[in-house]
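Q: Hi! First time doing this. I have a protein sequence and I read that you can turn it into a structure. Is that right? Here it is:
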Amino acid sequence: MTQKAQVFSKEGKVLAKTPAAIAVFSLEKQDDKKLALKEKSQTEQIVADLQEAEYRVTAVEKVERRRQSLPPFTTSLLQQAAATAFGFSVKQTMTLAQQLYEEGLITYHRTDSFNLAVSAVEKARQYIQDTFGAEFLPKEARHFAKTAKNAQEAHEAIRVTDLTISKEMVLEKSSRFTEQHQKLYDLIWRRFLASQMSEAVYDQTTVQVEAKKPGGHHKYGLKVVGSVLKFAGWRKLFQTGEDALIPDLAVNDLLDLHDLFSLQKFTQPPARYNDASLVKELEKRGIGRPSTYASIISVIVERGYVERQQRKFFATPIGMTVSDFLLEHFPDLMDYDFTAEMEEDLDRISRGEKEWEKVIDVFYKPLAKKIASVSKNADRVAVPVEETDELCPECQKLVAAGELPAKEAGKVVIRSGRFGKFKSCSRFPDCKYTENIVETLPDQKCPLCQQGDIIVRNTRFGKQFFGCSRYPECDWASWKKPEPGFRLTAKEWAEVKRKREEWKARFKKKEPAAEEKTVKTSAAAKTSKKTSSKSRPQKVAKVGVVRRTSKKTASKKVTSKKVTAQTK
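A: Yes, that's right. Below is the predicted 3D structure, encoded as structure tokens:
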């Protein structure tokens, strides 16, 4: 009897479909020692040995693995999950969550706590038993320990307020709700319910194989791990693809070599931050609070310190300049531990353990002196520019008119601004020449007019979009990069614009009456007078621009060999 299998890498990624009774083994050891490949000649020798080796199963281990469900969402976990699942930015996630909260569909969305209200847990357990059955309900309610630095746990975890409201019903709750609200609500709904469900159970099989060339001097150890979902538990709400199946093997079974391949990989630089990973890093280092993660990221984007490209953050020249300047002149302020300690002091103030005047006094007086000193003595730092051999056209006009010596004429340089890169003169500010740099998609024309080029633009918030070079004659624009050959009729474009206007109208807030405005303003003024003398200091969040290199190193690394074996 044969069993279907999949080819998958050591990391568990499915590579391709395979015939029955085939499994992919990873080379783990050489002569009972961990494999360490450094030279190409060493790799070639091993490949030659494995080509002529005999393969025998030495061990088969079958164990039951259990996986506990994930905790309910905190702010940072929700932001990370929404970015991973839907590509939402942190700011977008918080906007959608705010609107769901305002309509009473979810609990407060700025929290660092895993705690859940007792009544909510009881309702969740009852819903699980009624909907999925008693086997999906653990004997006791699940509780999760906090993991974030300086977690305040002032609010419970993010959850839906009524489990009977499905995602299909969300659009009925408010005219401003869209499919994005549905997606986020459904994610919160499933995560909350799954946090109180039984663990998932897997049958995991590990097979060890020994390979040795007849008459050879070396023996090699290979391994494959397969798993089959035995009981879904909380996984019933989070389907994760097919099982990783392997053939049914026994000790001393002999295997035939089906295929053999080696992989050579270059050492990779650290991955660039995206919304999800940056929020995770901020939380890990104790920088900011659930209520400030979105604003921290928005600030560094809007000020042009970083820019988004394909959902990843890239430090700009001005961002790197600011970072280097602050690191040089304010090293203590830029230290991550200092920021975390400052956050802890603010927590101590909130708990009544410290007086805020003393904390601020210790922090502010040295900072004020340092700022005054740096402002007086530090040299002005120029933002790095990209030089070109192109002559400045404005300077050349002055040279031609005899108003500027040729040797003093400037050259075109590339600078970075809020809306992307642009051309400027090296003589700035004496020469005011500027020209936008237009990035176009190669070999693609506007899908609407078929005449203009597709150009890449940036909003003032750093978000990228695509438009027609013939604007305003042609007003086509899209957030999504068009596929080559995509076409759009005038009628279809009119319908797209109509839906956009309809969507915008949902989010327009009605202006309160003039009398109502006056009353609110007056009340606010009176309140501020009463509380101004006792107002607490605002928390100061430090923003540091983290530079991550994208330059590949020259060193090479040869990975473990992959061996495909087939039972005889």
